[in-house]
Amino acid sequence: MKKLLRTLSGAALTALAISGCAALGIAPPFDATGVYRGTWTGTVQGATNADRSCSVTFDLKQADSSSFLQGFALTGEATIYFSCSSMLDDIAENGLPARVSLGVKGFLLPDGSIAFASIEPGTTQSILITVSGAGLDNDSDGIMDQIKADWTLIIDQPNHPRITVVGKVDAGTS
Ligand SMILES: [Ca+2]
Fold it and tell me: What is the overall mean pLDDT for the chain?
């Protein structure tokens, strides 16, 4: 009887611990580690004010540790391409580089919300990028397949007007 009680209380404790975790929402919704390629769209505010689209790559790593407020930490690299034919004028006239690669930091929340950003002040180029939206595990295998998010990019360069891009990114693993 004593042994049964001990087993029962052990099981109850385990159940409590599991439901406690679920209530706090500290389980990651999926593994966001991976390389996500796709396109960015947006309005290039500045000299042209034109709607543009080009390629984007996010190479993300999800940290094992988590915090209740921040969710699961992400680090990685965002590469934003401007070398699409529709952007040749922007590159020539506004001094846009062919692409920028930036280290990013961010976090993933239990509901799949994902956000990451980079701020890189520099003497020849200062860049800010923010990406905020949803991570999607479309085939429910526990690995993130797609990022659909709003994004903002600001580039400041000497002797050029500030360039701001506001729009959407859609990138996936396939
Ligand atoms: Ca998946």
Answer: 84
Q: How far is the CA of 169 from the centre of ligand 1 (A)?
A: 18
Structural domains in the chain (count): 1
Name 44's bridge partners.
50, 165
CATH number of the domain that residue 151 is part of: 2.40.128
15 inside domain: no
Residues with CB under 5 A from ligand 1 (ion): 137, 139, 141, 143, 145
Ligand 1 center–CA 29 separation, angstroms: 11
**Percent of the chain surpassing pLDDT 90:** 54
- Domain for residue 10, yes or no? no
pLDDT tens digit sequence for 64-94 = 766 656 578 999 999 999 999 888 877 777 7
Decide if 105 is inside a domain.
yes
Residue 135 exposed, middle or buried by CB count within 10 Å (0-12, 13-18, 19+): buried
**Three-class DSSP category at 12:** helix
Q: What is the pTM of this model?
A: 0.81
User: 83 C-alpha vs ligand 1 centroid, how far in Å?
Assistant: 30
Range of the domain at 66: 28-172
Residue 32 belongs to a domain:
yes
Between the CA of 34 and the centroid of ligand 1 the distance, in Å, is 11
End-to-end CA, the chain: 57
